[in-house]
Amino acid sequence: MRIEITVNGRTREADDVWEGESLLYVLRERLGLPGSKNACEQGECGSCSVYLDGVLVCACLVAAGQAQGREVVTVEGLGSAERLHPVQQAFVEAGAVQCGFCTPGLVVATHDLLARSPHPDDAEIRESLAGNLCRCTGYEKIIDAVHLAAGRLTAAAPSGAAEEGT
Amino acid sequence: MEFVSPRTLDDALAAKAAHPGAMPIMGGTDVMVELNFDRHRPDVLLDLGRVAELADWSLDDGRVRLGAGVTYARVIRELGAELPGLAMASRTVGSPQIRNRGTVGGNLGAASPAGDSHPPLLAAGAVVELSSVSGVRYLPVAEFYLGVKRHAAADTELVTAVLVPRATGPEQFCKIGTRNAMVIAVAALGLALRPDTRSIGTGIGSAAPTPFRACDAEEFLAGALDADGLWDRPSPLPQALVAEFGARIAAAAAPIDDVRGTAPYRRHALAVLARRALTWAWDEYAAAGGR
Q: pTM for the complete prediction?
Protein backbone atom coordinates (compact mmCIF):
# COMPACT_ATOMS: atom_id res chain seq x y z
CA MET A 1 0.00 0.00 0.00
CA ARG A 2 0.99 3.63 -0.38
CA ILE A 3 1.77 5.67 2.73
CA GLU A 4 2.02 9.42 3.08
CA ILE A 5 3.53 10.79 6.27
CA THR A 6 4.84 14.20 7.27
CA VAL A 7 8.33 13.49 8.52
CA ASN A 8 10.40 16.26 10.07
CA GLY A 9 8.15 18.82 8.45
CA ARG A 10 8.23 17.37 4.92
CA THR A 11 5.54 15.30 3.25
CA ARG A 12 7.02 11.94 2.32
CA GLU A 13 5.54 9.05 0.38
CA ALA A 14 6.39 5.40 0.27
CA ASP A 15 4.99 2.83 -2.16
CA ASP A 16 4.57 -0.92 -1.88
CA VAL A 17 4.58 -0.78 1.90
CA TRP A 18 3.63 -4.16 3.36
CA GLU A 19 0.46 -3.86 5.46
CA GLY A 20 2.10 -5.34 8.55
CA GLU A 21 5.20 -3.19 8.28
CA SER A 22 6.31 -0.95 11.13
CA LEU A 23 6.80 2.80 10.99
CA LEU A 24 10.42 2.11 11.91
CA TYR A 25 10.95 0.02 8.78
CA VAL A 26 9.33 2.71 6.64
CA LEU A 27 11.58 5.40 8.11
CA ARG A 28 14.81 3.43 7.83
CA GLU A 29 14.40 1.34 4.70
CA ARG A 30 12.03 3.38 2.56
CA LEU A 31 12.62 7.01 3.50
CA GLY A 32 16.37 6.90 4.09
CA LEU A 33 16.21 8.00 7.72
CA PRO A 34 18.42 5.55 9.63
CA GLY A 35 18.74 7.72 12.75
CA SER A 36 16.02 5.74 14.54
CA LYS A 37 17.72 2.45 15.39
CA ASN A 38 16.33 -1.03 14.98
CA ALA A 39 17.36 -3.16 17.93
CA CYS A 40 14.69 -5.17 19.74
CA GLU A 41 11.59 -4.71 17.54
CA GLN A 42 9.41 -5.24 20.62
CA GLY A 43 9.36 -1.90 22.42
CA GLU A 44 11.85 -2.99 25.07
CA CYS A 45 14.86 -0.85 24.16
CA GLY A 46 13.60 2.56 23.03
CA SER A 47 16.26 2.87 20.32
CA CYS A 48 13.59 3.71 17.74
CA SER A 49 11.90 6.44 19.82
CA VAL A 50 10.23 9.10 17.65
CA TYR A 51 7.39 11.58 18.01
CA LEU A 52 4.07 10.59 16.45
CA ASP A 53 1.76 13.63 16.43
CA GLY A 54 3.91 15.06 19.22
CA VAL A 55 3.76 11.92 21.40
CA LEU A 56 6.86 9.87 22.24
CA VAL A 57 6.47 6.33 20.84
CA CYS A 58 8.51 3.35 19.75
CA ALA A 59 8.41 3.43 15.94
CA CYS A 60 8.75 -0.36 15.84
CA LEU A 61 5.32 -0.71 17.50
CA VAL A 62 3.43 1.61 15.15
CA ALA A 63 1.98 -0.03 12.05
CA ALA A 64 2.87 1.94 8.93
CA GLY A 65 -0.81 2.51 8.15
CA GLN A 66 -1.36 3.97 11.61
CA ALA A 67 1.08 6.74 10.71
CA GLN A 68 -0.74 7.54 7.46
CA GLY A 69 -1.40 11.30 7.29
CA ARG A 70 0.24 11.90 10.66
CA GLU A 71 3.26 13.91 11.72
CA VAL A 72 6.45 12.15 12.67
CA VAL A 73 9.58 13.76 14.07
CA THR A 74 12.72 11.65 14.21
CA VAL A 75 16.11 12.37 15.71
CA GLU A 76 17.10 13.77 12.31
CA GLY A 77 14.43 16.43 12.80
CA LEU A 78 15.84 17.71 16.09
CA GLY A 79 19.23 18.92 14.89
CA SER A 80 21.79 18.45 12.14
CA ALA A 81 25.47 17.54 12.09
CA GLU A 82 26.27 21.22 11.59
CA ARG A 83 23.86 22.47 14.19
CA LEU A 84 23.27 20.01 17.00
CA HIS A 85 20.23 20.41 19.23
CA PRO A 86 21.24 21.40 22.78
CA VAL A 87 20.25 17.90 23.95
CA GLN A 88 22.59 16.36 21.35
CA GLN A 89 25.37 18.79 22.22
CA ALA A 90 24.99 17.94 25.91
CA PHE A 91 25.28 14.20 25.17
CA VAL A 92 28.54 14.86 23.29
CA GLU A 93 30.02 17.07 25.99
CA ALA A 94 28.99 14.88 28.93
CA GLY A 95 30.47 11.76 27.31
CA ALA A 96 27.01 10.19 27.32
CA VAL A 97 27.73 8.38 24.05
CA GLN A 98 29.62 5.11 24.08
CA CYS A 99 28.82 2.78 21.18
CA GLY A 100 26.11 5.25 20.18
CA PHE A 101 23.39 2.80 19.23
CA CYS A 102 20.98 3.83 21.98
CA THR A 103 21.82 7.53 21.65
CA PRO A 104 19.23 8.64 19.06
CA GLY A 105 16.42 7.12 21.11
CA LEU A 106 17.77 8.65 24.30
CA VAL A 107 18.08 12.05 22.63
CA VAL A 108 14.45 11.98 21.49
CA ALA A 109 13.24 10.71 24.89
CA THR A 110 15.28 13.40 26.67
CA HIS A 111 13.87 16.03 24.32
CA ASP A 112 10.37 14.87 25.27
CA LEU A 113 11.19 14.81 28.99
CA LEU A 114 12.60 18.36 29.02
CA ALA A 115 9.61 19.67 27.08
CA ARG A 116 7.33 18.36 29.84
CA SER A 117 9.61 18.94 32.81
CA PRO A 118 12.38 21.54 32.34
CA HIS A 119 14.19 20.69 35.62
CA PRO A 120 13.86 16.97 36.28
CA ASP A 121 15.66 15.45 39.26
CA ASP A 122 17.58 12.18 38.98
CA ALA A 123 14.57 10.06 39.92
CA GLU A 124 12.39 11.67 37.26
CA ILE A 125 15.12 11.30 34.66
CA ARG A 126 15.54 7.60 35.46
CA GLU A 127 11.78 7.07 35.33
CA SER A 128 11.38 8.96 32.06
CA LEU A 129 14.30 7.21 30.36
CA ALA A 130 13.42 3.78 31.77
CA GLY A 131 12.31 2.60 28.34
CA ASN A 132 15.68 3.37 26.73
CA LEU A 133 18.34 0.73 27.25
CA CYS A 134 22.08 1.42 27.06
CA ARG A 135 24.04 -1.83 27.02
CA CYS A 136 27.36 -0.05 27.44
CA THR A 137 25.99 0.67 30.97
CA GLY A 138 26.56 4.37 30.60
CA TYR A 139 23.57 5.76 32.47
CA GLU A 140 25.47 8.07 34.84
CA LYS A 141 26.87 10.13 31.96
CA ILE A 142 23.47 10.13 30.30
CA ILE A 143 21.92 11.59 33.44
CA ASP A 144 24.71 14.20 33.51
CA ALA A 145 23.84 15.06 29.91
CA VAL A 146 20.16 15.53 30.73
CA HIS A 147 21.02 17.93 33.55
CA LEU A 148 23.42 19.81 31.28
CA ALA A 149 20.82 20.12 28.53
CA ALA A 150 18.14 21.17 31.03
CA GLY A 151 20.34 23.99 32.32
CA ARG A 152 21.15 25.24 28.84
CA LEU A 153 17.61 25.06 27.51
CA THR A 154 16.32 26.98 30.52
CA ALA A 155 19.06 29.59 30.18
CA ALA A 156 18.31 29.95 26.47
CA ALA A 157 14.55 30.21 26.90
CA PRO A 158 12.94 33.63 27.28
CA SER A 159 11.89 34.13 30.88
CA GLY A 160 8.57 32.48 31.64
CA ALA A 161 8.71 30.23 28.58
CA ALA A 162 10.66 27.44 30.25
CA GLU A 163 7.64 26.04 32.06
CA GLU A 164 5.89 25.41 28.77
CA GLY A 165 8.88 23.54 27.44
CA THR A 166 10.98 24.27 24.41
CA MET B 1 -2.52 -8.87 4.35
CA GLU B 2 -5.12 -6.15 4.21
CA PHE B 3 -4.96 -3.00 6.35
CA VAL B 4 -8.40 -1.64 7.27
CA SER B 5 -8.66 1.67 9.09
CA PRO B 6 -12.30 2.56 9.81
CA ARG B 7 -13.20 6.04 11.03
CA THR B 8 -16.42 5.13 12.83
CA LEU B 9 -17.49 2.39 15.19
CA ASP B 10 -20.17 1.20 12.76
CA ASP B 11 -17.55 0.76 10.06
CA ALA B 12 -15.24 -1.03 12.50
CA LEU B 13 -17.98 -3.47 13.54
CA ALA B 14 -18.93 -4.04 9.90
CA ALA B 15 -15.28 -4.78 9.11
CA LYS B 16 -15.07 -7.27 11.98
CA ALA B 17 -18.28 -8.95 10.79
CA ALA B 18 -16.92 -9.18 7.25
CA HIS B 19 -13.50 -10.42 8.42
CA PRO B 20 -13.96 -12.42 11.64
CA GLY B 21 -10.28 -13.36 11.55
CA ALA B 22 -9.17 -9.72 11.51
CA MET B 23 -6.64 -8.80 14.16
CA PRO B 24 -7.67 -5.58 15.91
CA ILE B 25 -4.78 -3.20 16.59
CA MET B 26 -4.93 -0.15 18.85
CA GLY B 27 -1.63 0.99 20.41
CA GLY B 28 0.24 -1.87 18.75
CA THR B 29 2.36 -2.62 21.81
CA ASP B 30 1.40 -6.31 21.71
CA VAL B 31 0.17 -6.81 18.15
CA MET B 32 3.22 -5.30 16.42
CA VAL B 33 5.54 -7.58 18.39
CA GLU B 34 3.64 -10.56 16.97
CA LEU B 35 3.97 -9.15 13.44
CA ASN B 36 7.61 -8.08 13.78
CA PHE B 37 8.61 -11.57 14.88
CA ASP B 38 6.34 -13.25 12.35
CA ARG B 39 4.51 -15.17 15.06
CA HIS B 40 1.19 -14.22 13.63
CA ARG B 41 0.14 -13.28 10.11
CA PRO B 42 -3.54 -12.25 10.11
CA ASP B 43 -5.31 -11.76 6.80
CA VAL B 44 -6.62 -8.40 7.96
CA LEU B 45 -5.15 -5.87 10.35
CA LEU B 46 -8.05 -3.82 11.74
CA ASP B 47 -6.71 -0.47 12.97
CA LEU B 48 -9.03 0.96 15.61
CA GLY B 49 -6.86 3.99 16.34
CA ARG B 50 -8.97 6.36 14.26
CA VAL B 51 -12.36 5.34 15.67
CA ALA B 52 -13.50 8.41 17.59
CA GLU B 53 -16.11 6.51 19.67
CA LEU B 54 -13.34 4.43 21.30
CA ALA B 55 -11.00 7.27 22.14
CA ASP B 56 -12.56 8.72 25.28
CA TRP B 57 -13.86 8.01 28.74
CA SER B 58 -16.93 9.33 30.51
CA LEU B 59 -18.45 9.18 33.95
CA ASP B 60 -21.86 7.58 34.07
CA ASP B 61 -23.89 6.46 37.08
CA GLY B 62 -20.93 5.89 39.38
CA ARG B 63 -18.96 4.08 36.74
CA VAL B 64 -16.22 5.15 34.39
CA ARG B 65 -16.90 4.04 30.84
CA LEU B 66 -13.35 3.68 29.59
CA GLY B 67 -13.25 3.55 25.80
CA ALA B 68 -11.04 0.79 24.45
CA GLY B 69 -8.70 3.35 22.91
CA VAL B 70 -7.82 5.25 26.10
CA THR B 71 -4.09 4.95 26.76
CA TYR B 72 -2.38 4.16 30.05
CA ALA B 73 -0.87 7.65 29.96
CA ARG B 74 -4.37 9.15 30.01
CA VAL B 75 -5.58 6.82 32.77
CA ILE B 76 -2.63 8.02 34.85
CA ARG B 77 -3.17 11.70 34.08
CA GLU B 78 -6.96 11.82 34.21
CA LEU B 79 -8.35 8.97 36.33
CA GLY B 80 -6.16 8.75 39.43
CA ALA B 81 -9.03 9.90 41.66
CA GLU B 82 -11.84 7.80 40.16
CA LEU B 83 -9.88 4.62 39.46
CA PRO B 84 -6.85 4.68 41.75
CA GLY B 85 -6.10 0.96 41.41
CA LEU B 86 -6.12 1.03 37.61
CA ALA B 87 -4.06 4.23 37.61
CA MET B 88 -1.48 2.64 39.93
CA ALA B 89 -1.25 -0.39 37.67
CA SER B 90 -0.99 1.84 34.60
CA ARG B 91 2.03 3.59 36.12
CA THR B 92 3.86 0.24 36.20
CA VAL B 93 3.24 -0.57 32.53
CA GLY B 94 6.34 -0.67 30.34
CA SER B 95 7.90 2.75 29.82
CA PRO B 96 6.67 6.22 28.81
CA GLN B 97 6.74 5.14 25.15
CA ILE B 98 4.57 2.10 25.92
CA ARG B 99 2.17 3.98 28.22
CA ASN B 100 1.70 6.63 25.50
CA ARG B 101 0.41 3.98 23.06
CA GLY B 102 -0.82 0.99 25.05
CA THR B 103 -4.48 0.84 26.07
CA VAL B 104 -6.56 -0.95 28.68
CA GLY B 105 -8.79 -2.19 25.85
CA GLY B 106 -5.77 -3.68 24.12
CA ASN B 107 -4.68 -5.33 27.34
CA LEU B 108 -8.10 -7.00 27.50
CA GLY B 109 -7.87 -8.07 23.87
CA ALA B 110 -4.45 -9.61 24.46
CA ALA B 111 -5.79 -11.37 27.60
CA SER B 112 -2.35 -12.28 28.86
CA PRO B 113 -2.36 -13.65 32.41
CA ALA B 114 0.39 -11.10 33.09
CA GLY B 115 -1.48 -8.03 31.78
CA ASP B 116 -1.22 -5.20 34.30
CA SER B 117 -4.81 -3.96 33.87
CA HIS B 118 -6.46 -7.19 34.88
CA PRO B 119 -5.88 -7.26 38.67
CA PRO B 120 -7.33 -3.77 39.26
CA LEU B 121 -10.24 -4.41 36.86
CA LEU B 122 -11.07 -7.63 38.72
CA ALA B 123 -10.72 -5.96 42.11
CA ALA B 124 -13.00 -3.12 41.04
CA GLY B 125 -15.66 -5.44 39.60
CA ALA B 126 -15.36 -4.08 36.06
CA VAL B 127 -17.60 -5.09 33.18
CA VAL B 128 -16.37 -5.56 29.60
CA GLU B 129 -18.43 -4.05 26.78
CA LEU B 130 -18.42 -6.27 23.69
CA SER B 131 -19.92 -4.91 20.48
CA SER B 132 -20.79 -6.40 17.13
CA VAL B 133 -23.14 -5.54 14.25
CA SER B 134 -25.81 -7.49 16.16
CA GLY B 135 -25.59 -5.34 19.26
CA VAL B 136 -23.82 -4.85 22.55
CA ARG B 137 -23.39 -7.22 25.49
CA TYR B 138 -21.77 -6.81 28.87
CA LEU B 139 -19.66 -9.40 30.63
CA PRO B 140 -18.17 -9.24 34.14
CA VAL B 141 -14.43 -9.08 33.60
CA ALA B 142 -13.95 -12.23 35.73
CA GLU B 143 -15.92 -14.14 33.06
CA PHE B 144 -14.02 -12.56 30.18
CA TYR B 145 -10.74 -14.43 30.65
CA LEU B 146 -10.94 -18.00 29.38
CA GLY B 147 -7.34 -19.16 29.18
CA VAL B 148 -3.81 -18.05 28.36
CA LYS B 149 -4.34 -15.23 25.84
CA ARG B 150 -7.93 -16.42 25.25
CA HIS B 151 -11.05 -14.43 26.03
CA ALA B 152 -14.80 -14.59 25.64
CA ALA B 153 -15.25 -12.14 22.74
CA ALA B 154 -16.65 -13.79 19.63
CA ASP B 155 -14.81 -13.50 16.31
CA THR B 156 -17.27 -10.87 15.18
CA GLU B 157 -17.06 -8.82 18.39
CA LEU B 158 -14.75 -6.01 19.45
CA VAL B 159 -13.91 -4.92 22.98
CA THR B 160 -15.31 -1.40 22.79
CA ALA B 161 -15.08 -0.29 26.43
CA VAL B 162 -14.69 -1.42 29.99
CA LEU B 163 -17.05 -0.10 32.66
CA VAL B 164 -15.24 0.37 35.95
CA PRO B 165 -17.06 1.32 39.17
CA ARG B 166 -15.57 4.42 40.80
CA ALA B 167 -13.54 3.60 43.86
CA THR B 168 -15.53 4.03 47.08
CA GLY B 169 -12.52 3.31 49.28
CA PRO B 170 -8.77 2.77 49.05
CA GLU B 171 -7.37 0.64 46.24
CA GLN B 172 -3.90 -0.83 45.88
CA PHE B 173 -1.88 -2.53 43.18
CA CYS B 174 1.45 -4.27 43.57
CA LYS B 175 3.62 -6.20 41.20
CA ILE B 176 6.81 -8.22 41.42
CA GLY B 177 9.47 -7.83 38.75
CA THR B 178 13.19 -7.51 38.27
CA ARG B 179 13.19 -3.72 37.97
CA ASN B 180 10.79 -0.80 38.25
CA ALA B 181 10.18 -0.49 34.51
CA MET B 182 9.67 -2.65 31.44
CA VAL B 183 8.61 -5.55 33.59
CA ILE B 184 6.27 -8.39 32.77
CA ALA B 185 4.81 -9.18 36.18
CA VAL B 186 6.15 -12.26 37.96
CA ALA B 187 3.14 -11.89 40.24
CA ALA B 188 0.67 -9.03 40.64
CA LEU B 189 -2.20 -8.20 42.95
CA GLY B 190 -5.00 -5.64 42.95
CA LEU B 191 -7.04 -4.90 46.06
CA ALA B 192 -10.12 -2.74 46.58
CA LEU B 193 -11.75 -1.88 49.92
CA ARG B 194 -15.42 -1.01 49.43
CA PRO B 195 -16.73 0.53 52.63
CA ASP B 196 -20.11 1.34 51.00
CA THR B 197 -20.96 -2.35 50.56
CA ARG B 198 -18.52 -3.59 53.22
CA SER B 199 -16.95 -5.84 50.64
CA ILE B 200 -13.47 -6.58 49.33
CA GLY B 201 -12.29 -6.93 45.76
CA THR B 202 -9.20 -8.79 44.64
CA GLY B 203 -7.49 -9.53 41.35
CA ILE B 204 -4.41 -11.65 40.81
CA GLY B 205 -2.13 -11.75 37.80
CA SER B 206 0.68 -14.00 36.55
CA ALA B 207 -0.31 -16.78 38.92
CA ALA B 208 -2.71 -18.97 36.88
CA PRO B 209 -3.66 -19.45 33.21
CA THR B 210 -5.94 -16.43 33.55
CA PRO B 211 -6.13 -13.41 35.84
CA PHE B 212 -8.59 -14.27 38.61
CA ARG B 213 -10.37 -13.18 41.79
CA ALA B 214 -9.56 -14.83 45.10
CA CYS B 215 -13.21 -15.06 46.22
CA ASP B 216 -12.48 -17.07 49.34
CA ALA B 217 -9.96 -14.48 50.56
CA GLU B 218 -12.40 -11.65 49.73
CA GLU B 219 -15.22 -13.23 51.74
CA PHE B 220 -12.95 -14.15 54.62
CA LEU B 221 -11.63 -10.61 54.96
CA ALA B 222 -15.01 -8.91 54.54
CA GLY B 223 -16.51 -11.26 57.14
CA ALA B 224 -13.72 -10.71 59.63
CA LEU B 225 -13.87 -6.91 59.27
CA ASP B 226 -17.63 -7.02 59.82
CA ALA B 227 -17.48 -9.41 62.77
CA ASP B 228 -14.94 -7.26 64.58
CA GLY B 229 -16.75 -4.02 63.78
CA LEU B 230 -13.61 -2.70 62.12
CA TRP B 231 -15.34 -0.85 59.25
CA ASP B 232 -16.86 1.55 61.81
CA ARG B 233 -13.88 1.73 64.15
CA PRO B 234 -10.85 1.31 61.90
CA SER B 235 -8.00 0.40 64.23
CA PRO B 236 -4.81 -1.32 63.05
CA LEU B 237 -5.65 -4.79 61.74
CA PRO B 238 -4.67 -7.81 63.86
CA GLN B 239 -1.52 -9.41 62.42
CA ALA B 240 -3.19 -12.82 62.40
CA LEU B 241 -5.96 -11.46 60.18
CA VAL B 242 -3.50 -9.91 57.73
CA ALA B 243 -1.47 -13.15 57.63
CA GLU B 244 -4.55 -15.29 57.04
CA PHE B 245 -5.65 -13.03 54.18
CA GLY B 246 -2.19 -13.42 52.60
CA ALA B 247 -2.31 -17.20 53.03
CA ARG B 248 -5.74 -17.40 51.38
CA ILE B 249 -4.60 -15.26 48.44
CA ALA B 250 -1.58 -17.55 47.94
CA ALA B 251 -3.77 -20.65 48.25
CA ALA B 252 -6.04 -19.39 45.46
CA ALA B 253 -3.17 -19.21 42.97
CA ALA B 254 -2.29 -21.95 40.50
CA PRO B 255 1.09 -20.70 39.28
CA ILE B 256 3.63 -22.37 37.02
CA ASP B 257 7.42 -22.46 36.89
CA ASP B 258 8.77 -20.37 34.03
CA VAL B 259 11.76 -18.21 33.14
CA ARG B 260 10.49 -15.40 35.33
CA GLY B 261 9.95 -17.35 38.53
CA THR B 262 9.04 -20.65 40.12
CA ALA B 263 5.58 -21.59 41.30
CA PRO B 264 6.58 -21.64 45.00
CA TYR B 265 8.19 -18.21 44.61
CA ARG B 266 5.03 -16.82 43.05
CA ARG B 267 2.87 -18.21 45.87
CA HIS B 268 5.21 -16.78 48.47
CA ALA B 269 5.33 -13.42 46.70
CA LEU B 270 1.53 -13.24 46.51
CA ALA B 271 1.18 -13.76 50.25
CA VAL B 272 3.65 -10.93 50.83
CA LEU B 273 1.94 -8.65 48.28
CA ALA B 274 -1.46 -9.36 49.83
CA ARG B 275 -0.26 -8.49 53.33
CA ARG B 276 1.39 -5.28 52.14
CA ALA B 277 -1.53 -4.19 49.95
CA LEU B 278 -4.03 -4.80 52.73
CA THR B 279 -1.93 -2.95 55.27
CA TRP B 280 -1.45 0.06 52.96
CA ALA B 281 -5.11 0.18 51.97
CA TRP B 282 -6.34 -0.22 55.54
CA ASP B 283 -3.94 2.42 56.86
CA GLU B 284 -5.31 4.80 54.23
CA TYR B 285 -8.89 3.93 55.24
CA ALA B 286 -8.11 4.43 58.92
CA ALA B 287 -6.26 7.68 58.28
CA ALA B 288 -9.32 9.03 56.49
CA GLY B 289 -11.37 8.21 59.59
CA GLY B 290 -13.11 5.21 58.07
CA ARG B 291 -14.27 6.72 54.82
A: 0.95
